[in-house]
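Might I ask for a little of your time on a matter of protein folding? What I wish to show you is a protein chain and, alongside it, a tokenised description of its three-dimensional fold. I should value your view on which stretches of the chain appear to form regular backbone elements. You will find the record immediately after this paragraph:
***
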Amino acid sequence: MTTSDPIADMLTRLRNAIGARHSKVDVPASRLKADIARILKEEGYILNFKIAEEGTRKTIKIYLKYTTANEPVISKMERVSRPGCRVYVGSREIPKVLGGLGINILTTPRGVMTGRTARKEGLGGELLCQVW
């Protein structure tokens, strides 16, 4: 099944797995989704991720992170730029999420990175999603 917005599909799968308190979730693989998972791991929102091959299909296994009280580390994930309405920002227009407590994920000419990193490097790009 093809989706018109694979990034929104990934975020929805993550939200659903967190709501059901699953330990891991499988997402169809792509380079952009792997970069998003890498950023979530670097920022401490997920435990780990692996790219697995099941026959001809590649999937990303994302291992979710919970606190000691079994509360999810990710409280909310929001898709900002959509296929029908792309959102592009300059380096000075990158918004802060919850006053700096959350992260933005952007695609820039130098690859996928957080809003904080893009601001430091003076890069703008497409604002994919916000996580907090």
User: Anything to note?
Assistant: The mean pLDDT is 96.
